[in-house]
Amino acid sequence: MLVTDCKSDDNLFESTTAVSITTVYYGTSSNKFYSAENKLQAIQFARINWSNLTADMASGRGEYLSTLADLIAVKPAQKAAFYRMAKKRFSQLLPAAEVTPEQLVTALKVASEKLDKT
Fold first, then answer.
1. pTM greater than 0.85 (yes/no)
2. Contact at 8 Å (CB) between 20 and 12?
3. 81: exposed, middle or buried (C-beta count within 10 Å: 0-12, 13-18, 19+)?
4. For residue 51, what are the contacts with CB-CB under 8 A and spacing of at least 6?
5. Separation CA 44–CA 52 (nearest Å)
6. Each residue of 84-116: pLDDT tens digit?
7. First-to-last CA distance in the chain?
8. 3 state SS of 38
9. How far, in Å, CA of 23 to CA of 94, rounded?
10. DSSP 16
């Protein structure tokens, strides 16, 4: 998987020049592409719903975690494993308060692609 930087400001939807993206993300075995636009949607969703999303991750279930799974193109057959992974790796994925939504989305996407290989 190819990863690139996503530069944005806090007013992502208020500025047309706030975002610079050059790469499309492709799932390694899912045939369903994960575009730069999907990543931006996932990041914005994580930013807006941070408290609820992290609570869902800690419990390994919930509508916010399910929605994020959809946004990062987790295959339906892998969702249960994705939820277990999010709960099990919660303290690794969010080791400090400084973790950004961008970092979290990228880490979850990378981890979800590894689920296909297990």
1. no
2. no
3. middle
4. none
5. 14
6. 999 999 988 887 778 899 999 999 999 998 886
7. 17
8. helix
9. 25
10. T
